[in-house]
Structures
1.
Amino acid sequence: MTTSRLTAVSGACTHLGCRLALDATQRRLNCPCHRTSFDVSRDVLQQQLPITLRPLPKILDRESGGVVEVFVPPTG
């Protein structure tokens, strides 16, 4: 039996915080602002900016009784 580990990551680009769009077929998160993409595990795949981008932040998650729980910190 194979057990997969869930990994939750931010849905906002680490450059300017633009909302990322999931491309499920390519298993990537695309930024509509600057042609940047991240793989679904958080690493930068492609970018055209003159700076080095950080990987997407991980978000604390767990699976409990078949339910996925994601802990998002409060804003403000």
2.
Amino acid sequence: MKKHIVSILVLSILFISCKEKAKEEKTETAPKAAIEQVADANYTANTETSVLNWKGFKPTGMHNGTVAIKTGSLKVNEGKLIGGDFVFDMSSITVLDIPAEEDSNGKLKSHLESKDFFDVANNPTATFVITEVTEGEATLVKGDLTIKGITKSIEFPASLTTTETGVKLTGATFKIDRTEFNIQYKSQKFFDNLKDKFINDEFEISFEVNASK
């Protein structure tokens, strides 16, 4: 009887062992999903589907809108972003938080185009040139931003992904101090006794650039 029980145990162990080995072999031979790498090339931005978003703040609320990308390019080498440059059409600035049909929308747009802010008549474009890209837990893009003829170095996190037509560069939200570009209107750095009528010096920017070869 004991021999019979021992035989059953041995057969059970052998069966389980063979089953586990087969499972391991199946796992080892299973094909691994390929990681799609961004193709090396010089990409041209699609100005119809690419956009820069802005958001400004004040104690009584905020405003947000967009600025169109006039021209742009991205350079990819060994699957990584290594350069690029953009020209923004400042006359295309829009206000999204106020209905387009309201007079206040047009008034704010005109004010943003005036000398109080971007002085579009004398500075119809702004530019950004990538100078360095650092890869790590997050991709950091560093470059020179020029607004109203003043150039400052800025840095922000971004991601580069493949699309059906090329690549997409997405810039996470980051902040810029407008006073560094001589936009002083209602800034507490330059004007006293504004009370709650001041406008925050920092405004937010994010963007999405779709580009193809």
3.
Amino acid sequence: MLSVSNLSVSFDDNHVLDGFNLDLQSGDIFALLGDSGSGKSSALRFIAGLESASNGRVALDGNNLSLDGNHSVKPELREIGMVFQDYALFPHMTVFQNISFGIDYLSKKEKIERVQTLLELISLQGIEKKYPHQLSGGEQQRVSLARSLATSPKLLLLDEPFSSLDKSHRDQLVQEVRVILKNAGVTSILVTHDENEAEAFADRVGVIHKKKLLIK
């Protein structure tokens, strides 16, 4: 479903990744571990089309997205969703407006149905009219997840989405988000530096070691 091959990333004379390879099947939940500066976020951003690379290829469902490190398909056309550490919700928009932000091509009725379905999926029914500041950190992160799933992405990338939460809420949310993604059947990659979080969240875990990816 996803194939990343021979990915190499350098910043000036600093070689971060060299020969990074990853293959995922549909519905896989994968966690990418690594120390700060190891290149894990760079790998994620290359897959998303937000960064170029010295070399590398990304294919999704057999279609080349990037070849030889260059952007061949724009990020917004890749059918890839992203969830960030800071939630990235629009503070002046309601939950409904945040979740439906990327699906304006749907009719009003279809948008309402899609948002309701996603709120049921994240177990936050009835909060459509609330604003982000009225939600807890965990609720905001689940709304961010719902917004990323609204466009029905083939692949979801999560860049340390739990790191700003305290441990008691983080452990619970890790399990909740895993269940949500499994129920939705969305292929996902989590970037984290927390080994326990990676093991609890993912079906498989990979570690960046000496610029390459090792699958545990």
4.
Amino acid sequence: MTRWGRLRIPLLAGACALALAACGQQQPEFPALEESPPDAIFNRAEFELASDNLDEAARYFGEVERLYPYSEFAKRALIMQAFTYHRNREYESSRAAAQRYLDFYPADEDAAYAQYLLALSYYDQIDEVGRDQGLTFQALQALRAVIEIYPDSSYAKSSILKFDLAFNHLAAKEMEIGRYYLKRGHYAAAINRFRVVVEDFQTTTHTPEALFRLVEAYLSLGLQDEAQTAGAILGFNYQSTDWYEDSFALLTSRGLSPDAEGTGWLSTIYRQMLRGTWL
């Protein structure tokens, strides 16, 4: 699809709606499909899209590709089909069409948009935190492709924002499981989950709570050095948060202070912070 075509997508519904109003809501006559040139079929698909007949729009865009596979309209129809499927929440079909576009036209100027649609087909399926996170991982991979392969495209900035949200989503899943274990007294299992957040998702909004939960879990196990070190990391990076205030109160109630102690994995992170290599 040309640059004109890409700009036309968000304006399409309004333009065609005005056209419909001008002709008294009467559907225009179209020639028989097999007798129609590619531009006529493409226009029919656009009409159906503007009329919110998404199944029909996707079908007609597909017919352009089927009947005129080597035409310029076939290329435009394929990306529009991916867009239409996504708008209709047929994410697997949108993904397939977008991937086919990337396979056939990897150097085309709309390849970035195809990759973005492919990423959205995963991203928009991310459900509640308690669900399986396989789609989140796939969304991250596809969004990363947009960011790394098409950094100068108009879709890179949006992909970065969505990548951060999806990344935060994965951290939230780890936190949910960690809290589950912590409430039931499975402290070692809880620590493993909170450690994942601190080590692998340290740029997310969940890191301060993960450190506080580590203070709780380590104190419950009688591991004072680790609890104090987790509190020290909180104090170094998140001193203004309620999580630090809560950890400080918890530690001092046991006669302890938020100071780095011992030689465990948290001590390594604390030393990295002092060198400016953590976060």
